[in-house]
Amino acid sequence: MDLGLTGKVALVTGASEGLGRAIALRLAAEGMGVAVAARNEPRLRELAHEIEASGGRCLVHPADLRIPDAPAGFAAAAERHFGRIDLVVNNAGATVRGDFLQLTEEQWQDGFALKFLGAVRLCRAAWRSLAAQGGVIVNIAGVGGRTGSADFTIGGAVNAAILNLTKSLADRGVKDGVRVHALNPGYIRTGRLGRRVAQLAAANNLSAEEALRRMSEDAGIARLGEPGEIAGVVAFLGSAQASYLQGVILDVDGGMTRTL
Question: Is the pTM value of this prediction over 0.70?
Answer without folding.
Answer: yes
